[in-house]
Amino acid sequence: MTNLELMDQIIAYRKNDNTFQRSIDERSEKMTFRFFDGPPFASGTPHYGHLLAGAIKDLIPRYMTMRGYQVKRKRGRDCHGLPVEKAVEKALWINGKRDIETKIWIESFVEKCRAYVNDTNEIWKWFIDHTARRADVENEYKTMDLEFMESVMYCFDKIYKNNLVYKGFKVQRYCPSCATPLANNEVAEGYEDKTDSAITVKFRLTPSKTQGEMMEKFEHTDDGSIKYTKAIIKNDKGEILQLFSTLHHKFTLPWGKVDKGENVETSLARELKEELGVEVKKITALWAFKQIMPLPMWSGMHHTFEVEVSGEIQNSEPTKHEKLVRVKVEPSENELGFQLVIENNIITETEEMLNQFTDLSFYLRNIPQQIGENGGGNVNFLAWTTTPWTLPSNMFLATGADIHYTMVYDFASKEYYILANNLLKKYYKNAEDYLVIRTFKGKELQGLHYEPLFDYITKSFTNRHFERSEKSPSTEIATSSSAPRNDHYLPKFFQILNADFVSIEDGTGIVHIAPTFGVEDFDAVAKLLWAQNALEWLFMPVNEYGEFDEQVYDYTGESVLNINKTIIERLKEERKLIKSESITHSYPHCRRCHTPLISKAMSSRFIKEQEMNASTRKAAETINFVPESVKNRFVNGLQQAPDWNIARNRYRGSPLPIWQNVDDENDRFSVGSLEEMYQLSRTGSKNIIKHILIRHEQTDYNVEYKHDSIWKTRLSTYGKQQAEHIKNQLKNLHIDKENLVIVVSPLERTRETILPFLQEIYTAKELTTSYQKYQEIQKAFQKLSSELKIVEYIQNTQNQHHFEIGKKLFVDFRITDSICPNFQDKIMPLKEPKYTRKDHLHNDKQGETYQQRRERNKEYLHFINQKYATHTIITVSHWWPLTCQKQCFREFDYFKEGTKHVPKNGEIGIFYRDTDRQKEVDLHKPYVDNYRFVKDGKTYKRVPEVMDCRFESGAMPFGQEHYLGE
Asked: Which of 124, 323, 368, 627 has a Cα at 20 to 30 A from 147?
């Protein structure tokens, strides 16, 4: 005998012996042990991981069972979320949300997901058996069960009504293939190595608003650099005149800006006369070069001259210059090769000379001479990025406020570049390739403007209009019908910001900011333009599939994940690319489809984790973790948890139970139960009917397991007591009498069951009249039964089956008990309905088949739903009819699963019927989206998202005991 054959024999023995169920039934409920087992995803076949974890988990319940505890182990399955959806996509040879919506359609896809889960049932049962695990797989619960989904809805509703859910606009990690944002914990599980192009690009400095105003008053170059003059004035000792600037707090050469209409020579003569009271005797041009000027920062073109003057030098503008001094230059062994002597003080420190005597240092180092007489080309900021596709959305550049930046002149390109001083060597191997013009901190660059690489933002905002909503004044919605507002934001774009996240670990120390596609980018810009107005100033050119829309018109429809090479080639052609390299780094991917994630600003719903975790952290401290070291990790995780993005733009999951006013998105509310949905839909979509199915209370025949499909048996004394309990249960349901329809079968025990409740809502006279009518209808039914014509009568759809015996009180032949004349007054062959297809539920020649029973109950439901739309319908019937009716709601296999659905005497089942689909209400998309509510005259529709499946799967272990809200 092989091991597999031996295993099969053991499994067969255990099943025949009912070993597992006996281990539960033979132990007292007074001594119970609960084991909460995290359920597996239904996203594929079992694997070794399930075997290992299952074996470990099985040890504890087994041990506690051997100690005499009753340990119920009802198995659960997580049937929602991207695991299932991606498995179905793979099976259908499709990829992503677009294929679902254009090739498969949502309803078909959702149903295929349901079928996929059901198709894996047998393999999971086989796996549980063959790994010798003890678990109740016959009565398992699933996240796609309606009751479980309602409990999830109930839980979310409680959180929502406690003001712990909000709609936020944030940058989130987003999967373009799945077309949905992901929570942080999902992102953390999907990191993979990825090779990207890392490029350095140049952004040309342009005049800021302040500099633009200056350009109207002073002469400037074509690129906006203000022209100004510097004068080297020596005495007969060779000492150079220096002025201490009150504005700049440093020593400078005599200087001045060139007024409109002046040339540089005329301007210099004027400035020297105004500032020093001297006349120019001789002027010799030395050089011109560009420099970033501080306080306020602007770009200037320096024209430097050697000047001979006549007259006594004096400080004619003491408010601008604190004092005039003569500086002597002497040779030195320091790195600059010179030292300065001023007022008998010797200055040798390089940093002091470069910063306090900037103009003089330029002169002495001969830097302008090396650049050339024309002063060089443009001034550019260098920025580094590993996401070239975000460059069309660039709005700002960021520098570190306290990081030292250097402006260099590049001999090869004949342009000026600005980058972090510590990163110069990454771009220049040889010091001879560049000249350091000056060094300054990032805070000195803040507010400078630059020219964007692309014109998409400029054109978009030039054509953009806004309309302010009366209901939400703080929100502006893009439209094409009102006055343009681009003047409010466009001038603020394309400038330098300071940000704390800028580092000098890599790149250039200057960060390209596209606030739509980066968390830190968004936060940095939000400080300047206000986060609450983000929809007004954000440029959002990427659709839900990760493709450029018409705003980036050159690349419309192109995936951002595939466009990097094209953008790099364009930048190279336009001479905006400085450097390109490849880097391999750990990058977040979708753990379901392995698509690289992007960051994208979008609206979503969030749970206030930190606010909720204030209490959960305390509870976590009381848990006995094994091993103990796990506790710190768990508690720390709670403390650091960000707000939970609960929404997913997908299909297979519990719906976000938020209904929103179709005319005002700020008017919304959550719903916590099917009952609430039903009540709200009664004046809205009117496509939900509430059914209350009641099996009659106990009779003597029930105790003896006898069959009665005629009229003999009545409620026992105990049954009548149960009927009083039914009355109280129905009263607790707060049923609206005017909205109520009650239907009983022609067998007296059903009317007796509901009689105590009828006495609460009808007068004695009404009940007497209705009973007289009931008896008349019973006689007709009994006559047909005695003549063995009742089956034929019910099958004929032309005959009357539904009879009114009171106001919204009816009797219906179709819901009578199973018609089996040969078994009348006899003990049923089976005390429990273990159905097989062979015996057709104990059919005899004069009785019914299962199919006939199902059809008459199906016809009854169809009739009653059409006739009493939006009502609450109470049906009081019997074992077989109610099981058939449940099957019409849920479509289970009658012969395999019928036993689970047989009601006990007096059992109340509540079902909600979707009249559009003629099936039980389904909370999955797209069905739940068809339920519209009307409240206070306003129409509400559900928001389109579903929940993160972890919201429900995390609570699944508790589902083995009961559902929330019960």
From this structure: 124
The yes-or-no verdict on residue 169 having pLDDT over 90 is no
Determine the pLDDT at residue 844: 52
Structure tokens at 686: 């009117």
E-strand ranges in 207-278 read 226-232, 240-245, 250-252, 255-257
Best CA proximity match to 816, nearest among 738, 714, 708: 708
pLDDT at residue 374 tops 70: no
Q: What is the per-residue pLDDT across 423-470, written as a single tens digit (0 to 9) for each?
A: 999 999 998 899 888 888 999 899 889 999 999 999 988 876 544 433
Rounded CA gap, 904 and 907, in Å?
5
Strand, coil or helix: 159? helix
Is the separation of the CB atoms in 495 and 512 below 8 Å? no
Beta strands in 907-955 (DSSP E): 908-914, 919-920, 933-935, 938-942, 946-947
Distance in angstroms (rounded) separating the CA atoms of residues 824 and 846: 12
Residue (of 94, 100, 92, 99) closest to 116 by Cα position: 92
pTM of the model: 0.79
The predicted pLDDT at position 834 comes to 44
Q: What's 388's DSSP letter? A: G
The proportion of the chain whose per-residue pLDDT surpasses 70, expressed as a percent, equals 93
DSSP H or E segment with residue 679: helix 674-681
Rounded CA gap, 898 and 894, in Å?
4
- Relative to beta strand 298-310, strand 226-232 is parallel
690: left (phi over 0), alpha (psi -120 to 50) or beta: beta
Between CA 247 and CA 256, with CA 253 as vertex, the angle to 5 degrees is 65
- Chain-centroid distance, C-alpha 224: 45
Neighbours of 640 (CB within 10 A): 11
For residue 406, how far is the Cα from the chain centroid?
A: 42
Does residue 777 surpass a pLDDT of 90? Answer: yes
Residue 713 and residue 699 in contact, taking contact as beta carbons nearer than 8 Å: yes
Measured between alpha carbons, how far is 259 from 517 in angstroms, rounded to an integer?
Answer: 44
Query: Bridge partners of 383?
Result: 201
Structure tokens at 655: 């719906």
Q: How far apart are CA 447 and CA 784, in angstroms?
A: 95
